[in-house]
Design brief:
By secondary structure, the protein is an alpha+beta fold. It contains 7 helices and 11 strands.
């Protein structure tokens, strides 16, 4: 049986974290977690959170380890062995460096303000880019869900330009651009994108 975390359960867990904190920590949800908080997906298997400020990241990870969370993956911690909280340090999602600071205005959508904890959601463009950099089948499906749900709010040309700029800083730029080509073909097939002549 696969365990998944919905929005309410995630906020419950973060309420517990907030109760243990003694200073401010800002989290930005990315990946499937962002889509769950946006109401686009009902639940998520792993919890993906960016902790943009290195000091806040160090403080939070130490606190969670003191609460019994154990390292299980590169950036992941788990207390029960079921749910993995991936805490990405700095302006990164996995190994993808985002071009604009995620804490800057307009680069995240406020989701919940606790007494010490701030929870934001990564902007749509960077959700799409960071998922398409991995480009598994689930990532492409998630990007399509986001594009369908927020089609009127996503400027395709801006997305393409931002993708190219982000990819230009990566050693695998050529293969990343192929991921973009594939996704644009999917969008065309769905009638969600038309190339400008």
């Amino acid at each position: 049986m696969e365990y998944r975390l919905n929005k309410e359960k995630l906020l419950e867990e973060l309420t517990v974290w907030n109760g243990m904190l003694k200073r401010r920590v800002r989290l930005i949800a990315c990946g499937g977690t962002a889509l769950t908080l946006l109401g686009i997906k009902p639940s998520t298997k792993d919890i993906d959170l960016i902790v943009p400020e290195p000091r806040e990241h160090d403080y939070l990870t130490k606190l969670l380890k003191d609460l019994g969370y154990k390292p299980v993956t590169g950036a992941g911690l788990s207390r029960d062995g079921i749910f993995i909280f991936d805490l990405f340090r700095g302006n990164y999602v996995h190994t993808t460096e985002l071009i604009d600071p995620v804490l800057d205005e307009g680069n995240n959508i406020p989701a919940k303000e606790f007494s010490y904890l701030y929870l934001g959601i990564l902007n749509y463009y960077d959700i799409l880019i960071s998922k398409l950099f991995w480009s598994t089948g689930v990532d492409v499906d998630d990007c399509l869900l986001l594009f369908k749900a927020k089609h009127g709010e996503i400027d395709a040309d801006k997305f393409i330009g931002r993708f190219h700029e982000t990819a230009s800083f990566d050693v695998a730029e050529r293969s990343l651009l192929k991921n973009l080509e594939y996704f644009l073909a999917v969008l065309k097939k769905e009638g969600l994108y038309r190339e400008r002549k």
